């Protein structure tokens, strides 16, 4: 039982050290450590802004491509000559 208490105590101490190392709030304001993580934060936000712009442009490009493809399909299907007496087939109809 004493072994379990010692093991739990060691785990609690290790957890406190890990949390303290990962917490940037522990750095005192005005110290040398503040500028580095702040600069990294700004750099990450700049990169995210660039990625967001690229995603928006890609989505807009894909939307225009889909619209043009749908227009081409619509024009092609409306210009196909249909022989008299040929049954019309709806490709979107549920076939079971």
Topology of helices and strands:
Elements: H1 2-22, H2 32-78
Describe the structure.
The chain is an all-alpha fold and 96 residues long. It is built from two helices and no strands. The model has no long low-confidence stretch (mean pLDDT 75).
List keywords for this structure.
single chain; 96 residues; mainly alpha; 2 helices; elongated
How many H/I helical runs? Answer: 2
Poorly predicted segments: none
Large-scale geometry: elongated
Class by helix and strand content? mainly alpha
Quick check: average pLDDT? Answer: 75
Sheet-strand content, in percent, reads under 5%
Which radius of gyration do the C-alpha atoms yield?
A: 32 Å
Order of helices and strands: HH
Largest sheet: none
Taking the alpha carbons of the first and last residues, their distance comes to 67 Å
Helix content: over 70%
Strand element count:
0
Concise account of the structure shown:
With 96 residues, the chain is an all-alpha fold. The chain has helices at 2-22, 32-78.
């Amino acid at each position: 039982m004493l072994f379990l208490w010692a093991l739990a105590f060691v785990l609690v101490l290790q957890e406190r050290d890990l949390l303290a190392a990962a917490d940037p709030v522990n750095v005192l304001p005005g110290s040398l450590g503040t500028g580095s993580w702040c600069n990294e934060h700004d750099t990450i936000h700049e990169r995210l802004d660039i990625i967001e712009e690229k995603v928006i442009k890609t989505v807009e490009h894909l939307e225009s491509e889909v619209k043009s493809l749908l227009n081409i399909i619509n024009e092609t299907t409306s210009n196909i000559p249909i022989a008299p007496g040929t049954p019309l087939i709806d490709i979107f109809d549920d076939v079971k």
